[in-house]
Each structure stands twice: as structure tokens, then as C-alpha cells.
Amino acid sequence: MKILLISFDFNWGGVQEYFVSLTQGLLKQSNIEVIHLVKEKSFSSKRFLEIFENYKNYKLKTFSFFSLKDFINLFFLLKQVDIIHINREHELWLAFLCRIIKVKAKIIFSQHIKPNKKRFCLNFCDKITVNSNYIRKCFEVLYNKKYINKISLLYPSISNLPKLKEAPYKINGFPSMLMSGAYWKNQEKLLYVLKRILKEKSQAKLYYIGPSQDQKLLSKLKEKIKTLKLENNVEILDPLPREQALSLINIIDFYVYSFTEEPFGISILEACLLNKTIIAFKGGGINEILENYNKSYLIKAFNYDEFAQTLIKIYNNQEYKKMANLELLKEKFSFEKMLESHLTLYSFI
């Protein structure tokens, strides 16, 4: 069986980490060949090759919209595979193209983000997968349950965390907090929380990690930090490779989160596995992770006072240092379950 996984994201994020875990499992199957189709010169094209270059049953293909040769190669590639798995809404045109050129492969589309408008090309997909019940409900409301028989819930997983090395930065906040993610995820909301924390904890510090391409949003965040006079208590870190980012998360006191429409939250799951105390505003798919984690606190959005007081209380009582119970979490989001559900889907269709 030949499986083509498609994602034209330029950067690296939760979808790509999902790709890595899924591909690692698929490549262990003797009858499966995996092909990644990614954007030319993207970070993904380099990273995937680094991870999988030694696998005989793996291939990496790159694509540019400005290359006629790439379009011709794409036509031949689509006709050579058994499963076409599209992982971004903007690539749904490929489902339409497949029907036009009469591709025999089965087409799967994975909805990784909250859908905000109807997509005609979904009519050409054989199956639609969602990564949380939250996204399933959003999808069903938007389409009035039109595709309800096509939808499958497939939770992502992390095959394993990399071996942690020394953190690339020194953390000096008391308490220290960190959020990672693209800069459109309501990061400024945490500044209002920090203002309240500083009334009792003057040495508190908040760290952000996000992609460098979000310069406009990053500039707005920096301006807000300046307006609120928080320059000494907020630090925006350069983008980090996953291994270094996890090493940093491993030494902070609290992993905090402000986005209330997160589809799933790979970074949240990683923070759980690192035994971090997590405080987040309620909303989105992260609830489905944190309901199985005993070191998490969900705050009504956007109740800054409750968020701040919850964090201060946990810090004062040293509760953030206790060990987490990961049994339920690991069972629900196990790598084995994730792989089995995908293999079942691929075989079924």
C-alpha cells in the first residue's frame, strides 16, 4: 500500500509532529510505503528528510506552484498511490484535481483547525478525520451534519519525547511561566494575567516561544508589552527546535495557555508528559487532554483575576512540584491506539 501524506505548511507545528508519529508507525509495517509531499524549500522538507532518510520505504517529494515540471510530476504521483491524505484546508483543491484526472486512490482529509467556512471540495473526499470532539462539533454545526457519515475521530499522539539536553536559556522568574505557539493565539491575554500576578509576585516572568515568520503579530505583542510596562517581566525567545523547546519547558514552573479555540494541542500534551502544571483558559480541544491530567487548571475565558490567583496559590503551596498521574493520559493518547486507528481507516476505505 502506498500512502501519500500532503501538507504544504512552510513552518513546523503540531500537524508536522502528528505526521512524524504517524509515519514512524506506518514505516514499521512491511506492506506500506509512505511518501511526503511538502512545499519546496520549507522547513518541513528539511526536517522530514533528517528524520526519515534512512528508511527504505520512505520518499520525500517537494512541490512548487511556480514549476510546470512539479505539476506534471504531481499528476503522475497522484495516480501511483493507494491513499491520498490531505492535511490542510488550502490543499483541498487536490481532491477536486484527483476526480478530474480520474485518480483511483481513496482520498482522506484531516481537519486540524476549527473550520471557518464551507469547502466545496469536501464532496470529493472519501473520509474526513478530526483530531478532537471539539472540531467534530464545529464541523457538524458548520455543515449541518452533511458529512456526519464520513467523519472519524482520530486523536493524535506522540511516539516518544526526545532525550532532553541542557536548556538553551536560563530561566529566572519566580514563578516562571511559558507559552509556545503561533502569535495569533491570544498571547496578549496572558499579559493581563501577569499584571495581576506581579502585584504579589514582583519577580514573576513570562516567556513566549513562537515562529519568527509572525512578524506583524509579534510587533503588536511587543507594543502591548511596552504599553503595559512589562519589559522586565516578559521575554520573547527565538524560535527553537523541538528538542530545545522541550528542554526549556522542562525547567519552567508553569505552562500557560491563552488560546480558547485550539483544535487539539500537541504542545499541551507534551507539557503533560513533562510533568508540568498547566493553567489555561477553557475552550477548544485542550479540554479533552486536560480532563485526564491531574495537574491542570482550566479557567473561564478570560477571567484574568481567577487565572492569576490560581497560579499564585499553587506556587505558594508548592503544588506545582508534585508528580502527575499520567496513566489515563497515556492510555487515551497512546501511540499504539493512534496507529491502530489510522491503519483501520486506511484498510477500511
Give short descriptive properties of this protein.
single chain, 349 residues, Rossmann fold, six-stranded parallel β-sheet, 13 strands, 38% helix
Q: Would you mind describing this structure in some detail?
A:
The protein has 349 residues and is an alpha/beta fold. The protein has two domains: 2-157 and 334-348, Rossmann fold; 176-331, Glycogen Phosphorylase B (Rossmann fold, 3-Layer(aba) Sandwich), CATH 3.40.50. The chain is built from 13 helices and 13 strands. The protein has helices at residues 14-26, 43-52, 68-80, 93-100, 133-142, 187-197, 215-227, 242-249, 266-273, 286-290, 304-316, 327-332, 335-348; strands at residues 2-7, 33-39, 58-63, 83-86, 106-111, 127-130, 151-153, 176-180, 205-209, 234-237, 254-257, 277-281, 296-299. The strands form two sheets. The chain has a seven-stranded parallel β-sheet with strand order 3-2-1-4-5-6-7, with helices on both faces. α10 (286-290) links the parallel β12 and β13 (296-299). α1 (14-26) packs across α13 (335-348) and α6 (187-197) crosses α11. The radius of gyration is 21 Å and the shape is elongated. The protein starts with a strand and ends with a helix.
Question: Summary?
Answer:
It is built from 13 helices and 13 strands. With 349 residues, the protein is an alpha/beta fold. It folds into two domains: 171 residues, Rossmann fold, CATH 3.40.50; 156 residues, Glycogen Phosphorylase B (Rossmann fold), CATH 3.40.50.2000.
